[in-house]
Design brief:
With 400 residues, the chain is an alpha/beta fold. It is 53% helix and 10% strand.
C-alpha cells in the first residue's frame, strides 16, 4: 500500500477509535428462550410481527415453538422464508412487501446470519423507504430508528445478533457489502440452544470457527478496547472448551448454550473493534460464489494471521493462554505458533480443510478490489494491504 493511502487509513481509524467512548454502542438484551418473545412484543405494544427465515428452518420445524407461543398470546405473524445464503437485495425488498401487507410493527430474524442480516435489511428499508440499500453501504448512513428487531440465532457463530452491520449482496452485480450504523443493533437476542440442536456437525463447526474469527480479528485490531478484549478472550475460551463437544455431540444443550454465548461475546467484541482482512476476503467470496461465510473465514484465518507476522505474536499468545493451550512462561512467538497451529488442527479435525474450490484465478483481481474497498480504511488491521497485496490470500486457498 502506498504511503498516502496508509496515512489516510490510519488517520481515519485513529479518529474512529477516539470516538468509540462517545458512540451509542449497546448490547442487545438477552432472552433465554423463544417462548419469551411474546412478552417482549407485548411490552413493545407490537400486535403483528414479521418472521424472516429460510426454507430449511421451516422444514425442520424450528418455528413451531415460536408459532405456538405467539398464538397463545394472540399475536399475529407473517413469515418470509425465502432468505438465501448471503441474503440479497431481492430478499430484502420482497420481505418488506410482506411486512407492509400484514401491518407488522416488529421483525424477528430467525436463523443463521443470513436471516438475521436480511431482517436488519428489512428494518432499514422500513425506516428508509426512499433510499436504496446500496446508497447506505459503509458507515453511519442509516440515520433512522428501525422497528423493534429481535434475533433468534440458530447457529452459534455469526454474531449478527450483536452487531451494527447488515451484510447484503446486490442481486444483480453480486457485490456483497455491509451497512454499518447503530440503529442496526438488535434490541433483543434470543439465545435458545434448542433451536441449534438439529444443526449438522459440519455447519456447527464452520459457524463456531466464524465466531472464533470474530473474536481473533477484534482482539488483534488496532482499535480494540479493554471491554472488547475481555469479550474476545471469553469467546475464545468458550469456543475452545465447547466446540469439539457440540460437533461430536450435537444433543448436548449445555455446550450448545455455551457456544451461543461465545458467538454473542465475539459479536460484542467486533462490534466495537471491527474485523479485518479475513472478513473482507471472505465477503468477496460469499458475494461472488455463495461460499458459506463461516467456512471461508475458517479456511482463511490461519493464512492471514501468519501473514501479519511478529506484530501480533503477543496478542495471539494472550489468546492461546485464554484458550488454555499455552502458558505465560513461553515466548510470544511460541504462543502465537501454538494458537495458529490449533486453528489449523481444528480445520483438519472438522473436515474444513485449507482450500476453497470455487475460486477462479481470472476473478482474483476483481475480488481483491472488493476486499480492499470493504476493509480500507474502516478495518483497523495490524498490517495494511491494498488490493494487489490482498490477492495473495486468494492464491493461497485456491484449489491447485
Amino acid at each position: 500500500m502506498n504511503t498516502i493511502k496508509k496515512v489516510y487509513c490510519r488517520s481515519f481509524q485513529t479518529v474512529l477509535k477516539m470516538a468509540i467512548p462517545i458512540l451509542p454502542y449497546r448490547n442487545p438484551k438477552i432472552v433465554g428462550s423463544v417462548t419469551g418473545i411474546p412478552k417482549v412484543l407485548k411490552k413493545k405494544k407490537c400486535r403483528s410481527v414479521l418472521i424472516v427465515t429460510d426454507r430449511s428452518i421451516v422444514h425442520l420445524g424450528l418455528l413451531k415453538r415460536l408459532e405456538r407461543a405467539l398464538d397463545e398470546e394472540n399475536i399475529s405473524y407473517a413469515i418470509y422464508d425465502r432468505t438465501v445464503p448471503n441474503p440479497t437485495t431481492a430478499n430484502v425488498y420482497a420481505a418488506v412487501k410482506v411486512y407492509h401487507a400484514h401491518n407488522c410493527s416488529a421483525i424477528i430474524g430467525f436463523g443463521g446470519g443470513s436471516s438475521i442480516d436480511c431482517a436488519k435489511g428489512v428494518g432499514i428499508k422500513v425506516a428508509r423507504p426512499h433510499t436504496s440499500l446500496s446508497h447506505m453501504e459503509g458507515i453511519l448512513k442509516v440515520h433512522a430508528k428501525l422497528p423493534t428487531l429481535i434475533a433468534v440465532p440458530t447457529t452459534a457463530g455469526t454474531g449478527s445478533e450483536t452487531t451494527i452491520a447488515a451484510v447484503i449482496t446486490d442481486a444483480k452485480t453480486r457485490h456483497k457489502y455491509a451497512i454499518n450504523d447503530f440503529p442496526n443493533i438488535l434490541r433483543y437476542a434470543v439465545l435458545d440452544p434448542k433451536v441449534t440442536k438439529s444443526l449438522p456437525p459440519f455447519i456447527t463447526a464452520c459457524t463456531g470457527m466464524d465466531a472464533l474469527t470474530h473474536a481473533v480479528e477484534a482482539y488483534i485490531g488496532n482499535s480494540t478496547t479493554p471491554g472488547a478484549r475481555e469479550d474476545a478472550r471469553i469467546a475464545v475460551r468458550l469456543i475452545f472448551e465447547n466446540l469439539d463437544t457440540v460437533v461430536e455431540h450435537g444433543e448436548d444443550l449445555k455446550a450448545r448454550r455455551k457456544m451461543l454465548e461465545a458467538a454473542y461475546y465475539a459479536g460484542c467484541a467486533f462490534s466495537k473493534s471491527y474485523v479485518g482482512y479475513v472478513h473482507a476476503v471472505a465477503h468477496s467470496l460469499g458475494g461472488a460464489y455463495n461460499v458459506p461465510h463461516g467456512f471461508a473465514n475458517a479456511v482463511l484465518l490461519p493464512f492471514v494471521l501468519e501473514s501479519y507476522g511478529v506484530c501480533i505474536h503477543k496478542k495471539l499468545h494472550e489468546l492461546a493462554i485464554a484458550a488454555g493451550i499455552a502458558n505465560k512462561d513461553m515466548s510470544d512467538a511460541e504462543g502465537a505458533s501454538i494458537f495458529i497451529q490449533a486453528i489449523k488442527d481444528m480445520n483438519t479435525r472438522y473436515g474444513i480443510g485449507e482450500t476453497i474450490k470455487e475460486i477462479r484465478e481470472k476473478d482474483i483481481p476483481k475480488l481483491s478490489r472488493y476486499a480492499d474497498k470493504e476493509a480500507n480504511p474502516l478495518y483497523p488491521v495490524p498490517v495494511l494491504m491494498d488490493a494487489k497485496e490482498l490477492e495473495q490470500f486468494y492464491y493461497m486457498v485456491m484449489k491447485k
